[in-house]
Amino acid sequence: MILGLISDCVHTKTPEGKIASENHIYIRQMQALNQYFEGMVICCPFVEYNPSKVVSVYESPSISFMPLPNVGGDTINDKFKLLAAIPVWFRSFYQLNKQVDIVYQRFPNNLNIPGFLFFYIIRKKVFATYTGTWPEEANQPITYRLQKWLLKNLFRGPVWVYANGENLGRNIFAGFSPSYTWREWDEETEQVAQRIERLQQQGISMLKMVSVGTLNANKNQMYILNTCLLLRQTGIPFQLSLVGEGPLKESYRQFVKENHLENQVTVVGGLNYQQLRVLYRKHDFVVQAAISEGFGKVPIEGFFHGLIPVLNQSALAPYMVDNGKRGFLFDATDSGSLFQSLKHIYSTSPAQLLQDMISGGRIFAQTQTLENWAEGYYKKITEYFG
């Protein structure tokens, strides 16, 4: 079969003619899934290449692309551009339909609302992933609510969502979002053993923390930065690396400078997944304070490397840490909650508890590989459509 993919993941073409994206893990996932098909056609927005961005490139020769305009935004002009793009989208759907046997739609986004309508009318074989927060949220956009309703009630194929697997519906299945392969899990075994030995002998002499994600209000890195001020006031030694790009990057750098945190906090910027692996090995804790999170890839990546997650208790965070067996939770609506958790970790957490968390996280990470993800999708698709 030939697989068609409709996604709002932004792509670009490098000066060497390679197709690339800043979403490094997305590329790895699509290449893993492509191994189960004769080929893949990705229908997605393209932008001009920017040499200042950190990108990864596709290496699979059987993946081709159908470029779309990159539209969206909050201004009136943005809305007009989006409306003007809709006829282009439908023409692309028509062309995609002629080239592929089955279509994979990644929700939520504006692109897949007309995409759902088109492929529903022609009765195309389809499957989907909803990459946002699946449980209902008070401030969720109406377009997201609409897409959830369509997936629950009218979608004619399997749908994977980030949930705990209970009472999901006739065609809704719990899924995850992988970053690494089984081989990469195995590559970390020796350094994880050394990490555990160090904790047994030395304990936690410094909180070495990393936070990864788009630098924006939802990811809530400012909450973590404010917690750093409390750690310094209390005399708890720490280091924090903020990894990612986003609209608040310069604001965070200014905060670090104004509060004289340069020796403790580094705003790293964007990294590809190989660079990120190196950075993970230098830290002990993954700290994430996101207000709304579908499936946190970062805690899983931390588990692969033997890091312990410290997470805001929203969405799937309790599942990630197995209610305290694989990590720690805090409440980001309480300005002192993360500080209290980190103080507890530094002052009173026994080495054996931390060792057990690392070992439990590593076992959990074995189930979250790219191979397991791609194979699970293919088996379910084959079973669903006979």
Question: What does this molecule look like?
Answer:
By secondary structure, the chain is an alpha/beta fold. The chain is 43% helix and 18% strand. It contains 14 helices and 16 strands. The strands form three sheets. A seven-stranded parallel beta sheet has the order 6-4-1-7-8-9-10, with helices on one face. Strands 13-12-11-14-15-16 form a six-stranded parallel beta sheet, with helices on both faces. Strands 2-3-5 form a three-stranded antiparallel beta sheet. A hairpin with a 5-residue loop joins strand 2 (12-13) and strand 3. Helix 7 crosses helix 12. It is globular. The two termini are 13 Å apart. The mean pLDDT is 95.
Which range does the strand content fall in? 15-25%
Helix proportion: 40-55%
Give the C-alpha Rg. Answer: 22 Å
Q: Give the spatial strand order of the biggest sheet.
A: 6-4-1-7-8-9-10
What is the tally of beta strands?
A: 16
What structural class should be given to the helix and strand makeup? alpha/beta
- CA(first)-CA(last) distance: 13 Å
Largest sheet: 7 strands, parallel
Number of helices: 14
Give me the strand/helix succession.
EEEHEEEHEHEHEEHHEHEHEHEHEHEHHH
Which regions contain 5 or more consecutive residues with pLDDT less than 50? none
| Average predicted local confidence, pLDDT | 95
What is the molecular shape? Answer: globular
